[in-house]
Amino acid sequence: MTDLPGIVITGASGRMGQMLINTVLGSDKCKLVGAIERTGHDWVGRDVGEAMGGLTNGVIVTDDALEAFSRAQAVIDFTAPAATVAFSALAAQAHCVHVIGTTGMTDDDISKLGAAAHHCTIVRAGNMSLGVNLLTKITKMVAQALDDDFDIEVVEAHHNRKVDAPSGTALMLGEAAAEGRGVILADVSESGRDGITGARTRGDIGFSAIRGGDVVGEHDVMFLGDGERIILRHVASDRSLFAKGALKAALWGQTQKPGEYDMMDVLGL
Prior knowledge:
Blueprint: E1 6-9, H1 15-25, E2 31-36, H2 48-51, E3 61-62, H3 65-69, E4 74-77, H4 81-94, E5 97-100, H5 107-116, E6 121-124, H6 130-145, E7 151-158, H7 168-181, H8 185-188, E8 189-190, E9 205-211, E10 217-225, E11 228-236, H9 240-253, E12 259-261, H10 263-267
Parallel strand pairs: 1-2, 1-4, 2-3, 4-5, 5-6, 6-12, 7-9, 8-9
Antiparallel strand pairs: 7-10, 10-11
Helix pairs in contact: 1-9, 4-5, 6-7
Function: Catalyzes the conversion of 4-hydroxy-tetrahydrodipicolinate (HTPA) to tetrahydrodipicolinate.
Domain Dihydrodipicolinate reductase C-terminal: 131-267
Pathway: Amino-acid biosynthesis; L-lysine biosynthesis via DAP pathway; (S)-tetrahydrodipicolinate from L-aspartate: step 4/4
């Protein structure tokens, strides 16, 4: 048991953080060695199992991320952009794998991960599920096969507590469609339709976001032509699939050289 790779979970009190903790605790391929929360959070100093309303497990929640990372082989991070950028620098110091599921990151945030990737393995993805990554690959293939006679729209739905839009997954799908078309997403993205907008610009990739209830995640990529539509869809009904994918990435990353990877690499796609 002692030689199993150690995993640290950031944002331990969040819904995803707790899901990740339970996934690691339920695995026979790794062990939980740390749980991180921000300074001043009422979980800091408590046993994470007890804080989650269960049995104690000997892992004390801490706000000292570097100390926790130094005892781990990997950290799984679904927090916020600023926190993730800071965690990447600490992961580089500790030379542990940094698995990033954080969404809403700007190009500047992502560029800052490059320095850390010289010293540690970073696996970052807008979505950790096998199905979504297959959908991403298929989206690129369909976009390559169809010309601008087909309009592309990405429609996503999430729960009413999600703070960023479009979702990281929607943007990942949009990037795949843009790559298939041989264009840059930033040049053709349209996500601000409201009022009298005029006719749709040929070649644009549109985004629509739905927020409500407890929706885990639904994504449609629509290719709309005259007289026909092709709709590619993924529906996530259980948040645990993201946690399982993240853990797979954390274990995979331990055999890789420092650098930046994504779930396509992890899944061999």
